[in-house]
Amino acid sequence: MTYDQINGELVKEIIYRKKLDNGLEVFFLPKEGYAKQYASFSTKFGSNDLKFSKNGQDMVEVSEGIAHFLEHKLFEEPEGNAFDRFAALGANVNAFTNFNITAYYFTSTDYFYENLQHLIDFVQNPYFTDENVEKEKGIIGQEIKMYQDNPQWKVFFNFLKGMYREHPVKNDIAGTVESITATTKEDLYSCYETFYHPSNMVLFIAGDLDKEKVFEAVEESFHSKEVKEIVKIQKSMPIEPPEISEALVEEKLSVSTPLFNLGYKDTLVGMRGMELLKKEVTMRLLLDIIFGKSSPLFEKLYDEGLVDPSFNADFISEVDYGHSIISGQSTDPKLVKNYINEHISQLKETGVQRDEFERIKRKQIGDNLSFFNSIEYTGNSFVSYYFKDINYLEYIEVLKSITLEEVQSFLRKHFDESKQVLSIIKP
Prior knowledge:
Radius of gyration: 23 Å
Strand order of the largest sheet: 1-2-3-11-4-10-9
Oligomer: single chain
Shape: globular
Structural class: alpha+beta
Helix content: 40-55%
CATH architecture of the largest domain: 2-Layer Sandwich
Number of helices: 15
CATH topology of the largest domain: Cytochrome Bc1 Complex, Chain A, domain 1
CATH class of the largest domain: Alpha Beta
Number of domains: 2
Protein backbone atom coordinates (compact mmCIF):
# COMPACT_ATOMS: atom_id res chain seq x y z
CA MET A 1 0.00 0.00 0.00
CA THR A 2 1.37 3.42 -0.91
CA TYR A 3 1.08 6.48 1.30
CA ASP A 4 2.98 9.71 1.92
CA GLN A 5 4.97 10.39 5.05
CA ILE A 6 4.90 13.71 6.93
CA ASN A 7 7.88 14.06 9.26
CA GLY A 8 8.14 16.21 12.34
CA GLU A 9 11.81 16.00 13.20
CA LEU A 10 11.73 18.23 16.27
CA VAL A 11 8.64 16.59 17.75
CA LYS A 12 9.83 13.11 16.68
CA GLU A 13 6.49 12.23 15.15
CA ILE A 14 5.55 10.77 11.76
CA ILE A 15 2.11 11.09 10.20
CA TYR A 16 1.16 8.85 7.27
CA ARG A 17 -1.17 10.23 4.61
CA LYS A 18 -3.24 8.62 1.89
CA LYS A 19 -5.77 10.16 -0.49
CA LEU A 20 -8.66 7.89 -1.46
CA ASP A 21 -10.29 7.78 -4.89
CA ASN A 22 -13.27 9.73 -3.53
CA GLY A 23 -10.96 12.62 -2.55
CA LEU A 24 -10.89 11.92 1.20
CA GLU A 25 -7.56 12.68 2.90
CA VAL A 26 -6.71 10.10 5.58
CA PHE A 27 -3.97 10.72 8.17
CA PHE A 28 -2.57 8.25 10.69
CA LEU A 29 -0.38 9.15 13.67
CA PRO A 30 1.16 6.05 15.33
CA LYS A 31 1.39 6.40 19.14
CA GLU A 32 3.22 3.34 20.39
CA GLY A 33 2.42 2.38 23.98
CA TYR A 34 -0.74 4.52 24.15
CA ALA A 35 -3.81 2.72 25.52
CA LYS A 36 -6.19 5.30 24.02
CA GLN A 37 -7.19 5.41 20.34
CA TYR A 38 -8.68 8.41 18.60
CA ALA A 39 -10.36 9.20 15.29
CA SER A 40 -11.92 12.39 13.97
CA PHE A 41 -13.91 12.91 10.78
CA SER A 42 -13.97 16.62 9.92
CA THR A 43 -15.42 18.83 7.23
CA LYS A 44 -14.30 22.28 6.18
CA PHE A 45 -17.70 23.75 7.01
CA GLY A 46 -18.37 26.06 9.93
CA SER A 47 -20.73 28.79 11.06
CA ASN A 48 -19.03 31.37 8.79
CA ASP A 49 -20.05 29.49 5.62
CA LEU A 50 -23.39 31.10 4.84
CA LYS A 51 -23.03 31.85 1.12
CA PHE A 52 -21.59 29.37 -1.37
CA SER A 53 -21.98 27.67 -4.72
CA LYS A 54 -21.40 24.06 -5.74
CA ASN A 55 -19.89 23.05 -9.09
CA GLY A 56 -20.35 26.52 -10.60
CA GLN A 57 -24.08 26.74 -9.88
CA ASP A 58 -25.81 29.86 -8.54
CA MET A 59 -24.81 31.14 -5.11
CA VAL A 60 -26.91 29.76 -2.24
CA GLU A 61 -27.45 31.73 0.96
CA VAL A 62 -28.38 29.82 4.13
CA SER A 63 -29.49 30.74 7.65
CA GLU A 64 -27.08 31.44 10.50
CA GLY A 65 -26.35 28.37 12.63
CA ILE A 66 -26.96 25.79 9.91
CA ALA A 67 -23.55 24.07 10.31
CA HIS A 68 -24.28 23.54 14.02
CA PHE A 69 -27.83 22.37 13.21
CA LEU A 70 -26.37 19.78 10.81
CA GLU A 71 -23.95 18.56 13.48
CA HIS A 72 -26.90 17.94 15.84
CA LYS A 73 -28.96 16.13 13.21
CA LEU A 74 -26.28 13.74 11.97
CA PHE A 75 -26.31 11.81 15.25
CA GLU A 76 -29.93 10.82 14.61
CA GLU A 77 -30.43 7.54 12.73
CA PRO A 78 -33.57 5.69 11.54
CA GLU A 79 -33.07 3.07 14.25
CA GLY A 80 -32.06 5.36 17.09
CA ASN A 81 -29.05 7.46 17.99
CA ALA A 82 -25.37 7.17 17.03
CA PHE A 83 -24.34 7.80 20.65
CA ASP A 84 -25.85 4.45 21.68
CA ARG A 85 -23.77 2.45 19.20
CA PHE A 86 -20.51 3.90 20.54
CA ALA A 87 -21.55 3.53 24.17
CA ALA A 88 -22.27 -0.18 23.60
CA LEU A 89 -18.59 -0.59 22.60
CA GLY A 90 -17.24 1.49 25.49
CA ALA A 91 -16.26 4.47 23.31
CA ASN A 92 -16.87 8.18 23.91
CA VAL A 93 -18.18 10.02 20.85
CA ASN A 94 -18.77 13.74 20.45
CA ALA A 95 -18.69 16.57 17.94
CA PHE A 96 -18.12 20.31 17.71
CA THR A 97 -18.84 23.11 15.28
CA ASN A 98 -16.71 26.23 15.25
CA PHE A 99 -16.47 29.14 12.82
CA ASN A 100 -14.67 27.13 10.13
CA ILE A 101 -14.92 23.40 10.86
CA THR A 102 -17.35 20.72 11.99
CA ALA A 103 -15.71 17.63 13.52
CA TYR A 104 -17.03 14.28 14.77
CA TYR A 105 -14.69 12.22 16.92
CA PHE A 106 -14.40 9.33 19.34
CA THR A 107 -11.88 7.94 21.81
CA SER A 108 -11.71 4.26 22.72
CA THR A 109 -9.48 1.68 24.36
CA ASP A 110 -11.00 -1.32 22.56
CA TYR A 111 -13.05 -2.23 19.48
CA PHE A 112 -11.32 0.54 17.53
CA TYR A 113 -12.19 -0.69 14.04
CA GLU A 114 -15.87 -1.26 14.89
CA ASN A 115 -16.03 2.29 16.28
CA LEU A 116 -14.26 3.67 13.21
CA GLN A 117 -16.87 1.98 11.00
CA HIS A 118 -19.67 3.56 13.08
CA LEU A 119 -18.05 7.01 12.79
CA ILE A 120 -17.77 6.82 9.00
CA ASP A 121 -21.27 5.35 8.63
CA PHE A 122 -23.23 7.89 10.66
CA VAL A 123 -21.40 10.92 9.24
CA GLN A 124 -21.88 9.66 5.67
CA ASN A 125 -25.55 8.70 6.07
CA PRO A 126 -27.79 11.68 6.91
CA TYR A 127 -31.31 11.02 8.08
CA PHE A 128 -33.43 14.18 7.98
CA THR A 129 -37.23 14.21 8.05
CA ASP A 130 -39.63 17.12 8.40
CA GLU A 131 -40.60 15.78 11.83
CA ASN A 132 -37.11 15.29 13.29
CA VAL A 133 -35.94 18.65 11.92
CA GLU A 134 -38.87 20.45 13.57
CA LYS A 135 -38.22 18.64 16.85
CA GLU A 136 -34.53 19.67 16.79
CA LYS A 137 -35.44 23.35 16.37
CA GLY A 138 -36.90 23.38 19.88
CA ILE A 139 -33.78 21.71 21.33
CA ILE A 140 -31.37 24.11 19.62
CA GLY A 141 -33.60 27.07 20.50
CA GLN A 142 -33.24 26.16 24.19
CA GLU A 143 -29.47 25.85 23.74
CA ILE A 144 -29.29 29.31 22.15
CA LYS A 145 -31.29 30.84 25.02
CA MET A 146 -29.03 29.12 27.55
CA TYR A 147 -25.93 30.60 25.90
CA GLN A 148 -27.51 34.06 25.88
CA ASP A 149 -27.47 33.86 29.69
CA ASN A 150 -23.88 32.61 29.82
CA PRO A 151 -21.61 35.57 30.73
CA GLN A 152 -18.43 34.01 29.22
CA TRP A 153 -20.24 33.35 25.92
CA LYS A 154 -21.82 36.81 25.81
CA VAL A 155 -18.64 38.75 26.61
CA PHE A 156 -16.91 36.90 23.74
CA PHE A 157 -19.61 37.36 21.09
CA ASN A 158 -20.15 41.00 22.11
CA PHE A 159 -16.40 41.39 21.59
CA LEU A 160 -16.68 39.90 18.08
CA LYS A 161 -19.65 42.16 17.27
CA GLY A 162 -17.53 45.14 18.29
CA MET A 163 -14.57 43.90 16.24
CA TYR A 164 -16.26 42.98 12.93
CA ARG A 165 -18.66 44.96 10.78
CA GLU A 166 -19.45 42.51 7.96
CA HIS A 167 -17.66 39.20 8.53
CA PRO A 168 -19.98 36.37 9.71
CA VAL A 169 -17.55 35.53 12.55
CA LYS A 170 -19.56 38.12 14.52
CA ASN A 171 -22.58 35.79 14.44
CA ASP A 172 -23.31 33.23 17.15
CA ILE A 173 -22.16 29.75 16.02
CA ALA A 174 -25.59 28.30 16.91
CA GLY A 175 -27.44 31.07 15.06
CA THR A 176 -30.53 32.78 16.43
CA VAL A 177 -33.94 31.35 17.33
CA GLU A 178 -35.28 33.08 14.20
CA SER A 179 -32.59 31.69 11.86
CA ILE A 180 -33.04 28.16 13.25
CA THR A 181 -36.83 28.39 12.90
CA ALA A 182 -36.37 29.32 9.22
CA THR A 183 -34.14 26.29 8.47
CA THR A 184 -35.72 23.46 6.48
CA LYS A 185 -34.87 19.82 5.79
CA GLU A 186 -33.99 20.85 2.21
CA ASP A 187 -31.52 23.49 3.50
CA LEU A 188 -29.78 20.83 5.61
CA TYR A 189 -29.52 18.43 2.66
CA SER A 190 -28.20 21.24 0.42
CA CYS A 191 -25.39 22.01 2.89
CA TYR A 192 -24.74 18.34 3.55
CA GLU A 193 -24.39 17.45 -0.14
CA THR A 194 -22.03 20.39 -0.66
CA PHE A 195 -19.74 20.21 2.36
CA TYR A 196 -19.89 16.56 3.47
CA HIS A 197 -18.47 15.15 0.27
CA PRO A 198 -15.31 13.16 1.20
CA SER A 199 -13.21 15.51 -0.97
CA ASN A 200 -14.00 18.35 1.47
CA MET A 201 -13.22 16.20 4.53
CA VAL A 202 -10.32 14.81 6.53
CA LEU A 203 -10.14 11.60 8.57
CA PHE A 204 -7.46 11.66 11.28
CA ILE A 205 -6.56 8.55 13.29
CA ALA A 206 -4.09 8.14 16.17
CA GLY A 207 -3.13 5.32 18.50
CA ASP A 208 -1.04 2.18 18.95
CA LEU A 209 -2.36 0.67 15.73
CA ASP A 210 -0.95 -1.01 12.62
CA LYS A 211 -0.79 1.51 9.77
CA GLU A 212 -1.49 -1.06 7.03
CA LYS A 213 -4.59 -2.25 8.86
CA VAL A 214 -5.73 1.35 9.50
CA PHE A 215 -5.64 2.33 5.81
CA GLU A 216 -7.15 -1.01 4.72
CA ALA A 217 -10.03 -0.56 7.18
CA VAL A 218 -10.75 2.97 5.92
CA GLU A 219 -10.66 1.91 2.27
CA GLU A 220 -12.94 -1.03 3.04
CA SER A 221 -15.40 1.30 4.81
CA PHE A 222 -15.78 3.40 1.66
CA HIS A 223 -15.54 0.51 -0.80
CA SER A 224 -19.28 -0.15 -0.84
CA LYS A 225 -20.21 3.54 -0.92
CA GLU A 226 -20.99 5.18 -4.25
CA VAL A 227 -18.15 7.42 -5.45
CA LYS A 228 -19.81 10.73 -6.26
CA GLU A 229 -18.30 13.36 -8.49
CA ILE A 230 -15.81 15.50 -6.57
CA VAL A 231 -17.48 18.72 -5.46
CA LYS A 232 -16.00 22.11 -6.32
CA ILE A 233 -17.04 24.63 -3.68
CA GLN A 234 -16.85 28.39 -4.00
CA LYS A 235 -17.46 30.37 -0.82
CA SER A 236 -18.48 34.02 -0.79
CA MET A 237 -17.48 36.25 2.11
CA PRO A 238 -18.41 39.92 2.52
CA ILE A 239 -15.56 42.42 2.35
CA GLU A 240 -14.53 43.27 5.91
CA PRO A 241 -13.27 46.86 6.30
CA PRO A 242 -10.14 47.45 8.42
CA GLU A 243 -12.13 49.59 10.89
CA ILE A 244 -13.76 48.09 13.96
CA SER A 245 -17.53 48.30 14.53
CA GLU A 246 -17.63 49.49 18.18
CA ALA A 247 -14.77 50.29 20.56
CA LEU A 248 -16.82 49.57 23.70
CA VAL A 249 -19.62 47.03 24.17
CA GLU A 250 -21.19 46.72 27.63
CA GLU A 251 -23.97 44.51 28.93
CA LYS A 252 -25.34 43.50 32.34
CA LEU A 253 -25.72 39.86 33.40
CA SER A 254 -25.61 37.82 36.58
CA VAL A 255 -21.90 38.05 37.53
CA SER A 256 -20.27 38.99 40.82
CA THR A 257 -17.18 40.58 39.19
CA PRO A 258 -17.15 42.18 35.72
CA LEU A 259 -15.80 40.03 32.87
CA PHE A 260 -13.90 41.55 29.97
CA ASN A 261 -12.49 40.72 26.53
CA LEU A 262 -10.06 43.25 25.10
CA GLY A 263 -8.33 42.93 21.75
CA TYR A 264 -7.02 44.39 18.52
CA LYS A 265 -8.19 43.69 14.99
CA ASP A 266 -5.63 42.11 12.68
CA THR A 267 -5.71 43.76 9.26
CA LEU A 268 -2.82 41.71 7.77
CA VAL A 269 -5.17 39.05 6.39
CA GLY A 270 -5.36 36.92 3.23
CA MET A 271 -2.37 34.70 4.07
CA ARG A 272 -2.26 30.89 3.92
CA GLY A 273 0.29 28.20 4.68
CA MET A 274 3.67 29.01 6.15
CA GLU A 275 3.13 32.79 6.01
CA LEU A 276 -0.04 32.49 8.09
CA LEU A 277 1.61 30.11 10.57
CA LYS A 278 4.58 32.43 11.04
CA LYS A 279 2.28 35.37 11.81
CA GLU A 280 0.32 33.33 14.37
CA VAL A 281 3.43 31.94 16.09
CA THR A 282 5.06 35.40 16.24
CA MET A 283 1.94 37.02 17.70
CA ARG A 284 1.45 34.28 20.32
CA LEU A 285 5.07 34.70 21.38
CA LEU A 286 4.61 38.47 21.61
CA LEU A 287 1.37 38.18 23.60
CA ASP A 288 3.06 35.83 26.09
CA ILE A 289 5.90 38.33 26.52
CA ILE A 290 3.47 41.21 27.16
CA PHE A 291 0.62 39.53 29.06
CA GLY A 292 2.04 36.22 30.39
CA LYS A 293 2.00 35.35 34.10
CA SER A 294 5.69 36.27 34.45
CA SER A 295 5.36 39.65 32.68
CA PRO A 296 5.79 42.99 34.53
CA LEU A 297 2.32 44.03 33.27
CA PHE A 298 0.58 41.00 34.78
CA GLU A 299 2.48 41.43 38.07
CA LYS A 300 1.41 45.09 38.26
CA LEU A 301 -2.24 44.36 37.47
CA TYR A 302 -2.30 41.40 39.87
CA ASP A 303 -0.59 43.27 42.72
CA GLU A 304 -3.13 46.09 42.40
CA GLY A 305 -6.00 43.59 42.56
CA LEU A 306 -7.15 44.43 39.03
CA VAL A 307 -6.87 40.88 37.58
CA ASP A 308 -6.72 37.33 38.87
CA PRO A 309 -5.04 34.16 37.46
CA SER A 310 -7.83 33.79 34.85
CA PHE A 311 -6.15 36.67 32.92
CA ASN A 312 -5.15 35.25 29.54
CA ALA A 313 -4.11 36.31 26.02
CA ASP A 314 -4.37 34.54 22.66
CA PHE A 315 -4.16 35.28 18.95
CA ILE A 316 -6.81 34.02 16.51
CA SER A 317 -5.38 33.69 13.03
CA GLU A 318 -7.59 32.62 10.13
CA VAL A 319 -7.15 33.17 6.40
CA ASP A 320 -9.74 35.95 6.13
CA TYR A 321 -9.83 37.41 9.66
CA GLY A 322 -7.83 37.62 12.86
CA HIS A 323 -7.54 39.35 16.22
CA SER A 324 -5.76 39.26 19.54
CA ILE A 325 -7.92 38.67 22.60
CA ILE A 326 -7.03 39.39 26.23
CA SER A 327 -9.60 38.07 28.69
CA GLY A 328 -10.22 37.97 32.41
CA GLN A 329 -12.30 39.40 35.22
CA SER A 330 -11.68 42.69 36.96
CA THR A 331 -13.38 45.18 39.26
CA ASP A 332 -12.36 47.88 36.74
CA PRO A 333 -11.86 46.63 33.14
CA LYS A 334 -11.50 50.20 31.80
CA LEU A 335 -8.58 50.83 34.15
CA VAL A 336 -7.02 47.54 33.01
CA LYS A 337 -7.34 48.80 29.43
CA ASN A 338 -5.61 52.08 30.36
CA TYR A 339 -2.73 50.22 32.02
CA ILE A 340 -2.38 47.96 28.96
CA ASN A 341 -2.31 50.94 26.58
CA GLU A 342 0.31 52.74 28.69
CA HIS A 343 2.47 49.62 28.95
CA ILE A 344 2.35 48.90 25.19
CA SER A 345 3.09 52.53 24.39
CA GLN A 346 6.23 52.37 26.57
CA LEU A 347 7.18 48.98 25.12
CA LYS A 348 7.04 50.40 21.59
CA GLU A 349 9.63 52.97 22.66
CA THR A 350 11.96 50.63 24.58
CA GLY A 351 11.41 47.47 22.53
CA VAL A 352 11.22 43.89 23.80
CA GLN A 353 14.33 42.87 25.76
CA ARG A 354 16.34 40.04 24.18
CA ASP A 355 16.65 38.00 27.38
CA GLU A 356 12.87 38.13 27.91
CA PHE A 357 12.28 37.16 24.27
CA GLU A 358 14.63 34.16 24.57
CA ARG A 359 13.14 33.04 27.90
CA ILE A 360 9.52 33.12 26.71
CA LYS A 361 10.51 31.42 23.45
CA ARG A 362 12.10 28.51 25.38
CA LYS A 363 8.98 28.30 27.58
CA GLN A 364 6.69 28.17 24.53
CA ILE A 365 8.79 25.47 22.87
CA GLY A 366 8.43 23.36 26.02
CA ASP A 367 4.68 24.01 26.25
CA ASN A 368 4.11 23.08 22.62
CA LEU A 369 6.19 19.90 22.89
CA SER A 370 4.01 18.79 25.81
CA PHE A 371 0.83 19.25 23.72
CA PHE A 372 1.88 16.27 21.57
CA ASN A 373 1.25 14.00 24.57
CA SER A 374 -2.49 14.45 23.94
CA ILE A 375 -3.68 12.60 20.84
CA GLU A 376 -6.98 14.54 20.88
CA TYR A 377 -5.20 17.91 20.96
CA THR A 378 -2.75 16.80 18.26
CA GLY A 379 -5.55 15.48 16.05
CA ASN A 380 -7.76 18.57 16.35
CA SER A 381 -4.81 20.91 15.81
CA PHE A 382 -3.46 18.98 12.82
CA VAL A 383 -6.81 19.04 11.00
CA SER A 384 -7.53 22.70 11.84
CA TYR A 385 -4.14 23.76 10.47
CA TYR A 386 -4.32 21.40 7.50
CA PHE A 387 -7.44 23.16 6.24
CA LYS A 388 -5.30 26.34 6.15
CA ASP A 389 -2.49 24.59 4.16
CA ILE A 390 -0.32 24.34 7.29
CA ASN A 391 1.58 21.28 8.56
CA TYR A 392 1.08 21.36 12.34
CA LEU A 393 4.21 19.24 12.86
CA GLU A 394 6.23 22.30 11.76
CA TYR A 395 4.81 24.57 14.47
CA ILE A 396 7.79 24.26 16.84
CA GLU A 397 10.33 24.57 14.00
CA VAL A 398 8.68 27.87 13.01
CA LEU A 399 8.64 28.97 16.66
CA LYS A 400 12.39 28.28 16.94
CA SER A 401 13.04 30.36 13.81
CA ILE A 402 11.27 33.55 15.02
CA THR A 403 13.65 36.47 15.55
CA LEU A 404 13.48 39.35 18.01
CA GLU A 405 13.26 41.75 15.05
CA GLU A 406 10.10 39.99 13.78
CA VAL A 407 8.51 40.28 17.22
CA GLN A 408 9.40 44.01 17.39
CA SER A 409 7.83 44.51 13.95
CA PHE A 410 4.51 42.94 15.04
CA LEU A 411 4.60 44.98 18.26
CA ARG A 412 4.61 48.17 16.16
CA LYS A 413 2.02 46.97 13.61
CA HIS A 414 -0.61 45.15 15.65
CA PHE A 415 -1.31 47.29 18.72
CA ASP A 416 -3.24 50.14 17.16
CA GLU A 417 -5.66 51.76 19.62
CA SER A 418 -8.02 52.71 16.78
CA LYS A 419 -8.44 48.94 16.16
CA GLN A 420 -9.02 48.14 19.85
CA VAL A 421 -12.30 46.70 21.24
CA LEU A 422 -13.34 46.29 24.87
CA SER A 423 -16.31 44.09 25.75
CA ILE A 424 -17.54 44.11 29.37
CA ILE A 425 -20.19 42.09 31.20
CA LYS A 426 -21.13 44.02 34.32
CA PRO A 427 -23.07 42.79 37.38
